[in-house]
From TrEMBL:
This is DUF1572 family protein. Pfam families: DUF1572. SUPFAM superfamilies: DinB/YfiT-like putative metalloenzymes. InterPro entries: DinB/YfiT-like, DUF1572. It comes from the Bacteria.
Amino acid sequence: MVSAYIESLRKEFERYKSLGEKTFAQLRDEDLFWHFNDESNSIAIIVNHLAGNMLSRWTDFLNSDGEKEWRHRDQEFEDKIKSRAELEERWNQGWTCLFEALDAVNESNFQQTIYIRSEAHSIIEAFHRQLGHYASHIGQIQYIGRMIKGADWQSLSIPKGESESFNAYMKQGKS
């Protein structure tokens, strides 16, 4: 049961990671740093925040609070990343930490209580909390990408106006 749960989580996290990467692939380097106004975040800022959160939450998560003393959350929302290569490096650093944390969960520690900002969580609660958090930010990344690309945006799900044909296609595969 534990391994099936972890595998299910891994697939969902990998799906969201892939959606972010498919968005990056559609954009020019300068698009990664575009923001709507001074109060909004660029894709690069969102990536920096996601990575900071992942590193804080999942580094030594079985033994230490998920809000590390070395994390400076407010600085994650500053323009720190300066290139696509830096963005990809930071992105992968966060995801690697998350996937290593998933790999560390097993039958012997699955019932362990872990802490985020001194609040007790089961492993299930902690991973679900973060899955929702990451999904919301990846949705923001996709939305920014779609705003930038306009009519040139390549849908990452069922394209507008194609739901019926997609459903028919799916039904064919199930017959």
